[in-house]
Design a protein that fits this description.
alpha/beta, eight-stranded parallel beta barrel, 11 helices, binds SN-glycerol-3-phosphate
Amino acid sequence: MKFFIDTANLDQIREAQNLGVLDGVTTNPSLMAKEGITGRNNILKHYVDICNIVDGDVSAEVIATDYEGMIKEGEELAELHPQIVVKVPMIKEGIKAIKYFSDRGIKTNCTLVFSAGQALLAAKAGATYVSPFIGRLDDISTDGLNLISEIRLIYDNYGFETQILAASVRHTMHVIECAKLGSDVMTGPLSSIEGLLNHPLTDIGLAKFLADYKKGN
Ligand code: G3P
C-alpha cells in the first residue's frame, strides 16, 4: 500500500519524505487555507514546492465546478509539474472532466466519494485514483472501512485499474485496516503514519539491550 500524506504543510511533508516511506501528497482547498496559502499564484507555487520535496504524485484540486472551468484549471495544474494529479470532485461535470483528462493521459483523483456507486462511475470515467472519505463516513455513524471493501470487490470483479486511495484517514488503525482490505493507497496525517512505529515491547526491549550492552562494556 502506498503512503500519501494529507497536508499542505511543507515541514510535515519534508518530515514524512525524510522517513523514506512517502509515496505522495494529497491536498485540498481546506488544507491550503489552513496553511494560509491564498491567491491563485501562491497556491500554484505551493504545489510546485510540494512536488520539489516528494518523489511521487501530488493531488491538486480544481475549484471550478463547471466542465469548461475544470478543464481549464486542470490543464493549468497538470502543466505545473509532471507529478501533479488533477483532483476533481465527484459531480456530474467532474465525471465528464475525468473522462476528458483520462483520454489525454492526464492523471486524476476523483474526490469526495462516499458510495460504491460513485466509485464505480469514477472508474468507468478512467480516474487514476478514487478517494473514498472513510473518516467522514465514520463521523456520521457509517462504516467507512466497509466502503473500501465494497470498492475493492467491484474493482477486482472487473479489473478496473483505478487505484483506491483511502482518504480522510484519521489514525493508525485506519491505516492498518486499509492495508488489510487491499486499499492501494492511504492518505492521512503524519501522526497516522508515525503511529505505526509504536509498541511498548519495542521500547522495553531496546532499553534492555542497551542496558545489557553497557554492563559488558
Ligand atoms: O483526503 C481527504 C481529507 O483531506 C479529508 O480529511 O479529516 O477533513 O475528513 P478530513
